[in-house]
């Protein structure tokens, strides 16, 4: 039987790498995109090689390698090194260069800030192209696993539990030591006591560190990571990545590493977007996790109109009459309960984390006919009103009155997370520390925006626009760098 026969492996052939890479290859987009970036002005650092006399790799080369690799879910430095040897597109993209895994790893580690600036620069380019509108911004978060584990993450409760267990073990060994007369057993028990005492010193150190940190957790492997509910109710140690997306073409415009919850993150994301895109005003769409009075107020003062989903009722009595049936009278600063009674306040503010509140109640609760339906509190129904309640009510009214508009939130921001996590495998980070983890985030988001642009306008049009943008890149970058320097000086003066 005749078969299709391949080429003779020993046959010398004349072939150009250019012929081996398709015109619509992702490598060609990466090549063009990186070539128009002002690498020096972005602060991208090269890697110094240990060998005497050898020049370093051009940072352009290594940046292309990372953007290509991450798009194809090749993230580890060793796998990237291997790909440089076997991937034809990378031969073409890097001109046949094959950097070592150490060089590749050092480049990523040393350029966390540069990756942030690359992403910001691309966002400005997209705005100039008219692809980012800046009228409606969706804000949400997703969680990724850290290079840490629950075993190496400690809370005060966990530390106390370990100390209690160790003290019990020491006590038991000491009791056994008092009862035995055998020298061999004494030596064994003394060694066990010494071991437990050494373990105790470890947890005492952690206890001191945690109490001095003003935090609720301490992590050993990656100190910036935190215990989170990551996915499908699976707890682990990781990071919460905050992201913002423009509604026009669902392009990402911002990212930062936030706290374990979203409650304090709305204004940070919104104000950063406002500063980057130079917007006087715009709307934000966010879920209930972001609904916090001080955050809504910070946005309002900056001209940002929030549509953040109302927080669900947190009444301890699920059968109680909802707060919505108690009407607040602003002029007199009191509530009218469903039975028509006035609920008044002493006017004294109670301090709460990040806000103040006043308490409202009435003596009429004593003889109220519907008391059992209203509250289980023996002192009657009590309402706590935040100092930001007016702003919260305004936000809630906007959401309720514009439900179809608010529903756009999922379309604007959540689809991107599915791409990053499910298609590209960004469910965990290879890096340690907030800054380094954010470098991975910025790489992925730059890639997402590039691939999204291909979908929006096609590869040929994207190439044309990128080439046309070249003369403006230096100007934009200069302005961006001047702005960053001014902000640093202002911060220095404040300090």
Strand elements, count = 14
CATH architecture of the largest domain: 2-Layer Sandwich
Distance between the termini: 83 Å
- Major beta-sheet overview: 6 strands, mixed
Per DSSP, the total helix count is 18
Q: What share of residues is helical?
A: 40-55%
Mean pLDDT: 88
Low-confidence stretches: 491-495
Q: Radius of gyration, rounded? A: 30 Å
Strand content: 5-15%
Structural class comes to alpha+beta
Q: CATH superfamily name of the largest domain?
A: Ribonuclease H-like superfamily/Ribonuclease H
CATH class wording of the largest domain: Alpha Beta
The fold-level CATH name of the largest domain is: Nucleotidyltransferase, domain 5
Shape: flat
Q: What is the count of distinct domains?
A: 4
What does this structure look like?
The chain has helices at residues 17-20, 26-35, 39-42, 59-71, 77-86, 88-94, 101-110, 112-128, 156-179, 183-213, 266-277, 293-301, 371-374, 389-401, 403-406, 408-423, 434-457, 459-494; strands at residues 136-145, 153-155, 217-219, 226-231, 234-246, 252-258, 282-286, 304-308, 327-329, 334-336, 342-343, 350-352, 355-360, 383-386. The relative contact order is 0.12. Strands 1, 4, 5, 6, 7 and 8 form a six-stranded mixed beta sheet that branches. The chain folds into four domains: 21-110 and 458-494, no CATH class; 128-145 and 229-311 and 397-443, Nucleotidyltransferase, domain 5 (2-Layer Sandwich); 150-219; 323-386, no CATH class. Strand 10 (334-336) and strand 11 form a beta hairpin. It has 18 helices and 14 strands. Helix 5 packs across helix 6 and helix 11 runs parallel beside helix 12 (293-301). The protein is α+β, with helices and mostly antiparallel strands and 495 residues long. It is flat, with a radius of gyration of 30 Å.
């Amino acid at each position: 039987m005749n078969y299709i026969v391949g080429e003779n492996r020993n046959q010398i052939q004349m072939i150009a790498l250019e012929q081996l890479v398709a015109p619509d290859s992702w490598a060609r987009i990466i090549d063009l995109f990186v070539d128009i970036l002002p690498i020096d002005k972005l602060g991208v650092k090269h890697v110094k090689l240990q060998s005497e006399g050898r020049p370093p790799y051009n940072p352009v080369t290594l940046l292309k390698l990372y953007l290509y690799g991450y798009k194809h879910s090749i993230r580890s430095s060793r796998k990237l090194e291997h790909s440089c040897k076997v991937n034809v597109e990378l031969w073409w993209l890097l001109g046949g260069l094959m950097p070592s895994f150490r060089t590749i790893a050092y480049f990523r580690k040393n350029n966390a800030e540069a990756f942030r600036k690359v992403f910001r620069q691309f966002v400005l380019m997209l705005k100039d192209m008219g692809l980012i509108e800046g009228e409606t911004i969706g804000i949400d978060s997703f969680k990724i696993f850290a290079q840490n584990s629950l075993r190496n993450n400690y809370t005060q409760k966990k530390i106390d539990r370990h100390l209690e267990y160790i003290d019990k073990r020491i006590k038991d060994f000491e009791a056994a030591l008092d009862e035995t007369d055998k020298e061999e057993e004494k030596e064994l028990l003394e060694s066990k006591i010494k071991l437990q005492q050494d373990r105790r010193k470890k947890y005492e150190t952690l206890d001191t560190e945690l109490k001095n940190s003003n935090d609720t957790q301490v992590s050993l492997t990656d100190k910036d990571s935190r215990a989170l509910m990551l996915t499908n109710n699976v707890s682990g140690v990781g990071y919460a990545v905050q992201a913002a997306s423009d509604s026009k073409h669902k392009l990402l415009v911002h990212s930062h590493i936030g706290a374990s919850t979203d409650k304090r993150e709305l204004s940070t994301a919104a104000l950063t977007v406002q500063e980057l895109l130079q917007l006087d005003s715009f709307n934000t769409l966010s879920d209930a996790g972001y609904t916090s009075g001080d955050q809504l107020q910070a946005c309002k003062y900056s001209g940002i109109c929030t549509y953040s989903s109302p927080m669900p009722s947190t009444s301890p009595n699920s059968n109680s009459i909802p707060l919505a049936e108690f009407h607040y009278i602003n002029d007199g600063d009191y509530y009218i309960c469903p039975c028509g009674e006035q609920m008044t306040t002493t006017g004294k503010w109670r301090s709460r984390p990040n806000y103040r509140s006043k308490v409202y109640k009435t003596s009429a609760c004593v003889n109220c006919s519907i008391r059992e339906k209203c509250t289980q509190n023996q002192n009657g129904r009590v309402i706590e009103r935040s100092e930001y309640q007016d702003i919260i009510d305004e936000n809630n009214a906007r959401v309720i009155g514009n439900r179809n508009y608010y529903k756009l939130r999922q379309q604007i921001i959540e689809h991107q997370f599915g791409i990053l996590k499910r298609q590209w495998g960004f469910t965990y980070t290879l890096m340690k520390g907030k800054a380094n983890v954010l470098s991975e985030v910025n790489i992925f988001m730059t890639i997402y925006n590039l691939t999204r642009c291909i979908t929006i306008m096609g590869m040929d049009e994207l190439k044309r626009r990128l080439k046309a943008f070249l003369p403006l890149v230096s100007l934009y970058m200069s302005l961006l760098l001047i702005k960053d320097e001014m902000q640093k000086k202002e911060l220095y003066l404040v300090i």
